Each structure stands twice: as C-alpha cells, then as structure tokens.
Amino acid sequence: MYNKMWHQTQEALGALLDKEPQKMVEPQRNQVFIFQTLATFYIKYVQIFRNLENVYDQIVHPQKRILIRKVLDGVMGRVLELKNEMVELELTEFHYFDDILQDLKLAPQQLDIPIPKYFLKEKLEVIKGREKILAQILADSGIDTSEMKFPVKSMPFDQAVKLIQIAERARQGRLRALFMKQIYLQEYRAKQSKTLGKKVTDAWAAALCIQKVWRRFHQCKKTEKLREEEMIFLGMNPPPLFNEVSATVIQAEKVDRLRNEVQMKHEEDYREALVTIKNDLKLIEGLDIKENLQDQIRHWFIECRNLTGTFPDYPDIEEGGSAIIFSNKTIQQEEDEKWKMSPSLFLPAMKEGCNAYKEIWMNKDESWNFSQDFDPELIKEEKRKELESEIRVQVDELMRQELKNLKLAVDREREHPAKVGKKKKKGKKGKKKEKKTKKDKDLTADRTIESLYKELVEEGLLIQALKVNLSDYIGEYSYLGTTLRQVSIEPMPSLLDVRQLITLYGIWPLGSAAVHEKAPLVKSLLLAGPSGVGKKMLVHAICTETGANLFNLSSSNIAGKYPGKNGLQMMLHAVFKVARQLQPSVVWIEDTEKTFYKKVPNAEKTNEPKRLKRHLPQILKLLKPDDRILIVGTTRRPFDAELQSFCRVYQKIILVPRPDYASRYVLWKQIIERNGGVLTSALNVSCLAKVTDGFTQGHIVKVVKAVLTDQRIRRQIHKPLTAVEFITAITSMDPVYKEEEESFKNWYAKTPLGKKRALAITGGSTEKAKDKGKRKE
Ligand SMILES: Nc1ncnc2c1ncn2[C@@H]1O[C@H](COP(=O)(O)OP(=O)(O)OP(=O)(O)O)[C@@H](O)[C@H]1O
C-alpha cells in the first residue's frame, strides 16, 4: 500500500515540478492571479508532503527511505519558500485558501501541516538520555521540578494546624453520622418486621403490586431506548461508541508499530550490508578494478604521446587525479550549469530525487523482494564507484611514479621547477585562512560541554520543557477568510492558523537541518497576545516536538545572575555555546517587552530588565544557517516596548488571538472531556461557547478544573453537567476587553509588516509591486 502511495505521490510531484518553471517565471501583473498560483502550488506541495511523510514513516525498504527523505526535505523547504513568497506578496502572515480548497475539492483538515515523525523518532535515544541527565542534575542540586509546575504557597503554622483540625473534625463527624444512620436503619427494620409479621399478607395483592412496579420500570426503559434509537436514526445523536477508538484503529496502530520495528531491523541490515558488500567487492573485484584503471591510464599516456609528441602532465590530487581525464564533462557543460540559476534552492534536490526515482525505482521489478529488504545490487553499484575512487588514489600514486620514470627514460625530462613553487604558495594561503578563523574567542575553551550544561541547569537558565504536543493546542479553522476579505473585512486569524505558523517557522526548521540551512531563515519569533491564549504552551510544544533544549532568558529569570558586564557576556557565551553544540535549541524570553522598555518602572529597576537589549541584535547576527537555534519572545504588553529596536530583533511577529466562537466550542468540549467530564444533552456547549466570548483558553482551563472536582466527576452519573455551572464560575473572571484587543491590533499596525499592509490597502497595489520588485533585485 505504501509503495503504491509513494509511486502516486512521486508522479504527482513530477507533474508539479514540470509545471513550476512555466508558471513561476512568467512575469505577472495581476496580484490576485499571482496569489492564486502561489497558493495552488503551496496547497499541492502540502498534499504531497502529507503523503510523503506518511510513506517515509511506514515504508520499510532502507534504500527507498533514503531517497524519500531527500525529497521530503526538499518539499518542506519548497513549502516554506512559497509561504515566504505569499507573505511578501500579501504583506500578512495569515492567508486564507477556502476558495481554492473548494476548487480542489479538499477539506480544511487536509491543509493541516503535520510534523514529521522522524524529528523525534531518530533522536529518541539522545533525547531520553538528555532528559535523564537533566533530571539527575535537578535532583542533585535539590531543585524540585514539581514545584515549578505547581507553585506551593507557604502558610503560617497556626493556620496550618487549624486547617488540619477542621479536616480531622469533619472526618470524625462524617464517620459518626454514618454510624448513627446505620443504628437508625437497624432499629427501623426491626420495627417494620414486627408490624409486618402481625399482618396476614395477601399474596395476590403483593404480586400485583410487584408486577405494576416492574412493568412500569420495564416500559420506561423500552421507550427511552426506542427514542434514543430514533434520534440516532435521524442523525440527531451520535451512535453509541462514536467516540470510542474502534478495534480496527487499534489494530492499525499495532501494525504501524510492527512496521517501525521491521524498519529498524532493515536499516540495521542495510548498514551491515554496506560494510560487508564493500569488503566482498574489494576482495573479488578490487584487483580487476586496479588493473583496469592502470591499463586505461597507460593507454592515455601513449595516446597523448602519439598525438602531441610528449607525455602529459599528471592531474593533481586537488583537481581530482586521473578521474578528471575520464569524466565526460566538457567545459561548455560546466558553464551551462552555472548559468542556469534556479529560482528555488530546493527545486534541484527535488528534481534530482525525482530523476533518481524514475531511473531506479519507477519500473523496477521487485517481485523477488516481498519483505522489502535492501537491494544488494544497488549497494554494489554504489560501492563499486566508491571503491574505484579509493583505488584510484592508490593507482594515481603508482602511475605518477610510473609516468615520472617513463619521462625520465623516454624524454629525459625532470620535474618542472615552477610547479614546486606553485605548490608551496598554496600551502601559505591555507595558513592565512586558519589565522582568520581564530578570531572568535572562546571564553570557556577549557570547559567541557557537560560542565557548562550542568552550570546552566543549576542556574535555572536551562529548564525542562513541559511535555505538550502541538496537537494539544486545540482550535478550529477559519472558514470565512476569503469571503470576509472580499468585502474588505480583515478576518481574525483562527487558532489553527497560529498553530500552522508555529509548525512552519518554528518546528520544521528546528527539526530538519536540511530545511534550516536553505529555507528562508527565521532566527527569532515573537508571540504577542493577551494573557492565557497559550503563548507559553506553544513555546513548550516547539521543544517537545523537536526535542529541543529550552533556555529561559526572561528578564525575571536572569535578574541577579552573572552580574556585571563580563558576567553577562559569559552567560550569553555559555548559553549559545551549549545551544549550538546540543542543537536544536529554543531560547525563550518571557515578557520580552521588558527588555525593550521605553521607561523602566521604578519597581523593576533593581531587576535591570534591559540587560539583554544591546546584546540581542549581535547574537542574531552571529547565528548562522547551520545553527538550529530559535529565539522566541512572548509578550502580553508589546505596546510597552520601544517599537523600533523591538521589531529589529523579532523577525516574525505572530499575534495570538483570543479564541473565536468555533474555537471556543471545541475548546470547551475537549477541555471538559480531558478533565474527566462527560458530555450529555444536558450540557449546552453551544450556549457556553456563545456567552463566553472574550474569555481565553486560560480562563476555560481554570474554570473547568475548578468545577470538575473529584466529587463532581463521581456525581455525574446521577446529575449530569450543565452549562450554568461553568458560566457561574467564569463570571468572576475578567475577559479580554475590546479595548485591549484593539490596542494589540493598533500596535501590530505599527510594526513593519503591519505598516506595509496598511499602506498597500490604502495606497493601491502599485507601490507594493514596486517594493517587491526592489526587494527581489
Ligand atoms: N489552544 C489551546 N488548547 C488547549 N489548551 C490551551 C490552549 N491554549 C492555551 N491552553 C491552556 O491554557 C492555559 C494558559 O496557557 P498559557 O500559560 O500558555 O498562556 P499564556 O498566553 O502564556 O499566558 P500568560 O501570558 O498569562 O503567561 C494553559 O494551561 C494551557 O495549557
């Protein structure tokens, strides 16, 4: 099945790649048309990515997986490039595709961007090992992690005694009440039996009474059942076991796990085969290859002498040795390759992958390989080439000597003195380069990474990320985006739009080195939004999904640590050295507006919140494409920061909105269920979602936890949950008021991208096109 899926996806990718150059290179003036083209390509690449990711996770053939991985990274990079183009074109981070989805007959869920499972699977051992070390260091240094999750408030001694007394008296009271009840019942039963014993019972009347009660009860149950069945038949209620995981799904998950085991075994076999087959080849064919090469080279000596009258010069090792003589490349060809600049950095890799697929796999007969183990012939082919180049190095040495001897014997020529000089010069150049690279001073050259790691953990700068997946971030799609834009209303981005941006800008580049190196680089990300919209949760999710280390450089966290100028330098050096060496890493700055305060409030002056301000731009400059480090800032009050320097540091700004009706609806439902609540028809979720407009996810979580106590959960069978219980609890909280939301929007309109967009909307599209043209140049 996965093979079939792979072939289909490769074909779709091939077709898409053929279309790319025609559509993308043609100059276009119509903005809408350009966006439609970009968006269509984007959506199609996302579909291909989803399929390929699935295939890569499940296919067990090791050699196919290598090729799929290459194409997969290429597709990811291309999706990011297209996203970047769309951002530049529309001057907004959020795009709405609902009309294109309709044309392509796709559901919004199909646009969801999954996180490749290989990000974590391939690093499982490393991540587990690191978690263990971190836990060990925390335990050794007496820092209790549970305290970080659930902060404990201290309490005066007499108050604590009083609390324990109250609880104990209540317990004793309950016990006594139970005891008294039992005594009372005993007495009551004894009295009843006495009075009943005196009466002469009428057996018929008693039977009739029992029948009456039983029939009523039976009919009630029957009617209830019939009504329920009718509702299910009409589609008004979900069928029983609707939310249960079906046996088929469980079986499928089991098969998935089994496939992963087979995958690992095949991978191991393949690695072993790479070594054994090469050794075998060396034994069997090594001598032949050597003789063949020698014959070829000798033949070349003679041919050259016949043509030119002298023996040729032997090509240097740097030029590739004798391999260059027999390569088919002409100079003309090389020039062609240089000149053809591709518009994307990922297209060549994808094309290469597609060509390899067509050459090797498309029409390959694999009837012999039912178990999908490695193909030895392919390994042989590859290893033969490797072996040949290895042997060629030895042969070159021999033949160089032989040529020298030949020249001496036949032409009586000595080695050209000029050449020796040239070689020496090259050596000098190399030294110069070495000196230059030594410029970066390592402040902790004498320390091991382990000791730095330990120090940072003990200082509380390197913290344990909470285990939350991005899929735990609940939300719904925005279904009316395009429609609203058409009538000039800027739609509020939905929570799932935010989630996608986090995947694209945070998780993909951190998870894949190939993508990070070539895709449009995002070094810093700002999450701005009211309290409780899940900013922290998103930061932790980025770390969980990529296995990244989490550094906390919030001003409150670094206050008083590493004092002085030198101390600060040392701290930053240590943080970024560890972050670089144990990448991927996330450097989180909570309440980041404090670092850029326009005016530091008196109460916070002792904390020196602006310590990092001058250093952050320098740090960003030093981050190279191969450093998988992301700086994430979160803020509740971006308007307190000085705009210019703030926006210079944060390359991408994401406004995290409060949930809209659709999102609130799923949030209530899922958060209640996650906390042990049962949804019944008595609980009107729609009403709950409607009246809680303005409240954030944080509020919802808090209220659900407060209402769903252990006791309430136990009582649900007799008294189902109702919306009123939640509404009563939430009324004591402050929602996000319109004014606060407006101030976020106004602030965003002043950021570089916001300004450009406002200008484009009011000033027409011509300037936008010009601007884009300039940037492209
Ligand atoms: N989309 C979501 N789905 C499920 N739970 C969520 C979602 N968003 C937030 N939460 C939960 O809401 C609570 C508050 O979130 P979080 O602390 O991340 O918000 P925040 O924006 O960082 O708040 P603050 O600015 O006050 O620090 C957390 O318990 C988090 O798990």
UniProtKB/TrEMBL annotation:
Keywords: ATP-binding, Nucleotide-binding. Signal peptide: none annotated. Residues 525-640 form the ATPase AAA-type core domain. Residues 414-441 are annotated as: Disordered. It comes from the Eukaryota. The keyword Transferase does not apply. The lineage of its organism: Eukaryota, Metazoa, Chordata, Craniata, Vertebrata. Residues 419-436 have a biased composition (Basic residues). PANTHER family: DYNEIN REGULATORY COMPLEX PROTEIN 11, IQ MOTIF CONTAINING WITH AAA DOMAIN 1. CDD domains: RecA-like_IQCA1 (cd19506). This is IQ motif containing with AAA domain 1. GO terms for molecular function: ATP binding; ATP hydrolysis activity. Pfam families: AAA. It comes from Mandrillus leucophaeus. InterPro entries: ATPase_AAA_core, N-DRC_Component, P-loop_NTPase.
